[in-house]
Write a structure and sequence with these properties.
By secondary structure, this protein is mostly beta strands. It is built from 5 helices and 36 strands. The strands form 6 sheets. It has an 8-stranded antiparallel beta sheet with strand order 2-1-8-7-6-5-4-3. An 8-stranded antiparallel barrel has the order 9-10-11-12-13-14-15-18. Strands 19-20-21-22-23-24-25-26 form an 8-stranded antiparallel beta sheet, with no helix packed on it. Helix 1 runs antiparallel to helix 5. InterPro entries: DUF7042, DUF7043, DUF7044, DUF7045.
Length: 612
């Protein structure tokens, strides 16, 4: 009997313990659910802004109509709030119709002014978020998926209502063209003779079309280039806005085109879709609703002094860089401040070992000048150059003098195809406070296995809520006047940034942004951010990039590294990153924060669980 009593007591104790464990499990599940509510999901600042999107509406004459869309830090109002982010895929939830509706959207930044969005269908939604996530396209194949299923967003305003930024047109120079409009009528409208003209003068961000001797009255049209990109099947896309928009032929103001340059001749074929999508009546660069066949207008010959020169640019500089291409005796430079394209021919170095070369330059609009170019090698993947401040209509030996390069204003360029990787100048994990926002903390960490990669995080110092995460690849660095300059490229959006730093010791560094072109005369010790070493570098598997939500992302195009202390916009919620270093479960920091209401719900539910 005594053994039986002990057995019953032990069993009761066991049941009590099991009940306690079950209650704990339930409480933890509830807590995990509420913590998931606190997960932050933000759209990158590069995606935010005001856009127009074509809507399918039956209107008289089938005129294209648009819907205004605003992408904020946390929502696309017509589709819902950002609930979860998986690389370029976003789970949006919308409860405006009553029950929660979840959909997956794959958003690709085609250019700074154009987005393409794919989703299973706006007529479908899921109450289960896992079911919505299952409809997300595979990240590796999404860029090559059917273009006809993409919704095209054309940006009209930047964040804060600023005008959109200019971008270069991929079609450059002067052309004559023939034209055909296939509007479905018996007699297609045409400009049969190649006497119509196209150019991008004076600005390389516009295409100016002058129609002559056509089946319709002569007219001029100016397109503003919004962006260009490569698509499936090696097709090249171009987005434009008709700034001289007229209702003639009922053509929409926002257009999408395919273009192809003929190898060896420079001639171009271009075709437009019939609306603002990139698929309606558009099959190829030679088959579309509107078709252009562009023939290069022959340029005048080069001066004899240029033709007779044996000068060649140095071998280390040859190849494709951000805005320049160098081959043999020719350098092509697209000036993104004036939107002029210079074709520069080498005349000769100032001396056998000189970095300065007398040159003859001609713009895409026919302007000509003699000047001097100074090429400076800053690393295997970085060069800087200057054009002489003064030019001349004739060759002048003083063009390469020191006085023509004072003050020194360098233009920094990163190589598009890296010859080898360049390690970042510091290694380890550093932390500091952003100088102009003392409530924001920054963390900089390097990758042990990929020393050219660095991660940068901005968070709230009090609550550790992450505002911004970025990943950089270092292209190269050099010392000048006691300071370290590092040129980097963002891995998520492809932009280039320069940072100037002062390395006090292995445990203390100061850094400051130095703009796109490594601005000099910046004192990081006085104006920069102090970072103190907190630990060694982190380790990522080689060839992979971690992302929020787990999994791997394929490595993006070539990039650069170091750190950015850009403060997020204070009036709006900052954004979460496309890539970030893996978060160690042992980290003392927490990156989510419950609201008072959520904390109250946790307390109530846990109380009733344990009260049973």
């Amino acid at each position: 009997m005594q053994h039986f009593i002990h057995f019953r007591a032990a069993r009761a104790e066991c049941r009590k313990m099991c009940l306690c464990l079950e209650r704990t499990r339930i409480a933890l599940l509830v807590l995990a659910m509420l913590l998931s509510w606190a997960d932050a999901c933000y759209f990158p600042i590069e995606l935010q802004g005001e856009y127009v999107v074509q809507v399918t509406t039956n209107t008289p004459g089938n005129l294209v109509q648009y819907s205004q869309v605003n992408i904020s830090a946390e929502a696309i109002p017509i589709w819902g709030h950002c609930h979860r982010r998986l690389g370029n895929r976003f789970i949006l939830t919308d409860s405006s119709g009553g029950a929660n509706c979840s959909r997956c959207f794959h958003i690709i930044l085609r250019s700074r002014n154009v987005l393409q969005v794919r989703t299973e269908g706006l007529d479908k939604c899921y109450t289960n978020q896992d079911a919505a996530e299952a409809t997300c396209p595979d990240e590796k194949t999404a860029n090559q998926s059917d273009i006809s299923k993409a919704i095209v967003f054309y940006k009209t305003k930047e964040v804060g209502g600023e005008d959109i930024k200019q971008v270069y047109c991929p079609i450059n120079g002067r052309f004559n063209f023939v034209y055909t409009l296939k509007d479905g009528s018996i007699n297609n409208m045409k400009c049969r003779d190649p006497v119509s003209e196209m150019d991008n003068c004076p600005s390389g961000s516009d295409l100016n079309l002058h129609f002559h001797n056509c089946d319709f009255p002569n007219k001029d049209v100016t397109f503003q280039c919004l962006g260009h990109w490569s698509g499936p099947g090696d097709q090249n896309y171009l987005a434009l806005r008709d700034t001289s928009f007229m209702s003639q032929h009922q053509l929409p103001p926002y257009r999408c085109a395919l273009y192809k340059e003929e190898a060896g001749t420079g001639n171009v074929f271009m075709a437009f879709s019939s609306d603002s999508t990139c698929s309606s009546n558009l099959d190829s660069a030679m088959s579309g609703y509107e078709m252009f066949s562009l023939s290069v207008v022959p340029s005048i010959g080069w001066p004899s002094q240029v033709d007779n020169s044996n000068c060649r640019f140095p071998p280390w500089a040859r190849g494709y860089w951000q805005h320049i291409y160098i081959e043999g005796n020719t350098l092509t430079y697209k000036d993104h401040s004036t939107f002029k394209t210079y074709t520069i021919r080498c005349l000769g170095p100032e001396a056998a070992t000189s970095e300065r070369f007398a040159v003859f330059a001609r713009t895409q609009c026919g302007e000509e000048m003699y000047t001097c170019i100074w090429l400076k090698r800053r690393g295997v993947n970085v060069l800087e150059f200057q054009l002489g401040l003064q030019s001349s209509t004739y060759y002048n030996s003083t063009l390469c003098s020191d006085s023509n390069f004072e003050p020194k204003v360098w233009i920094t360029q990163g190589r598009m195809e890296r010859l080898e990787e360049s390690p970042c100048p510091v290694a380890g994990e550093y932390a500091g406070i952003i100088p102009d926002a003392t409530n924001l903390c920054a963390r900089l960490s390097s990758d042990c296995r990929s020393p050219e990669i660095m991660y940068y995080t901005v968070s709230d110092c009090s609550h550790s809520e992450i505002y911004e995460e970025r990943e950089y690849r270092c292209l190269g660095q050099w010392k000048e006047d006691g300071l370290m300059y590092t040129y980097t490229q963002r891995r998520d959006v492809g932009t280039y940034e320069c940072f100037v730093g002062s390395i006090v010791s292995n445990n203390e560094i100061y850094i400051k942004e130095a703009g796109d072109h490594c601005q000099r005369n910046i004192d990081p010790m006085h104006y920069g951010m102090k970072l103190t070493k907190k630990g060694s570098c982190i380790g990522n598997p080689p060839g992979s990039v971690s992302r929020p939500g787990g999994g791997e992302m394929p490595q993006p195009r070539p990039t650069t590294s170091w750190m950015s202390s850009r403060r997020p916009p204070e009036p709006t919620q900052p954004w979460k990153p496309i890539t970030a270093p893996p978060r160690d479960a042992s980290s003392a920091e927490t990156h989510t924060r419950l609201t008072p209401l959520q904390l109250l719900l946790v307390s109530i539910i846990v109380y009733f669980v344990y009260r049973q």
